[in-house]
# Entry
Amino acid sequence: MTVEVARWNGSLAEAADPLLALCRSVFDDFSDAYLLDRLPSLSDPDLWLAVEDGAWRGFKLGYRRGPHLLYSWLGGVDPSLRGQGIASELMRRQHDHAAANGYRFVETRTRAANNPMIVLNLRHGFHVAGFEIDSGGIPIVTQRKKLVAG
Ligand SMILES: CC(C)(COP(=O)(O)OP(=O)(O)OC[C@H]1O[C@@H](n2cnc3c(N)ncnc32)[C@H](O)[C@@H]1OP(=O)(O)O)[C@@H](O)C(=O)NCCC(=O)NCCS
# Structure
């Protein structure tokens, strides 16, 4: 069985239902409103999918936060397919596409306790750029990567 990675070319409104189903499988205790309330207001959304036999099994969703800054907001892989390089491939494709489309930086925020995501980001060239305790008392690490040399 092969997993293919591709960019979503439709609207986010069309993607909402399958994306919500995927979020529920990827994240523990996912709040539907967290996704659905924000989807309509994302500027220049950039959605990458890992698809297995037509089923959405992984994703990476970013959006524009400045003329040269892509914010990578949410992403994950179905638990049954972890550890096979799928998140790495989604990230590689996201970054290559962003660099080719004029972005110079990509930024992301992750709970400090989420070692898999923080390590994955470090392996792809992110640096730690900040630390905060969010409004819910949760420690958050900001990571940032320069996409183009110079
Ligand atoms: C983080 C996550 C996306 C990684 O997905 P994945 O497809 O299993 O990751 P990959 O197989 O591409 O791993 C790539 C690299 O990331 C790092 N990594 C991945 N999982 C890891 C783990 N459990 N512990 C430590 N490092 C890990 C490793 O460096 C790995 O490379 P290696 O296998 O050569 O050592 C996945 O665990 C996930 O979906 N987690 C839940 C969702 C989430 O937390 N998303 C982030 C917040 S939005």
Notes: The mean pLDDT is 96. The pocket of coenzyme A is lined by residues 26-27, 74-77, 82-88, 110, 114-117, 119-120, 123 (CB under 6 Å).
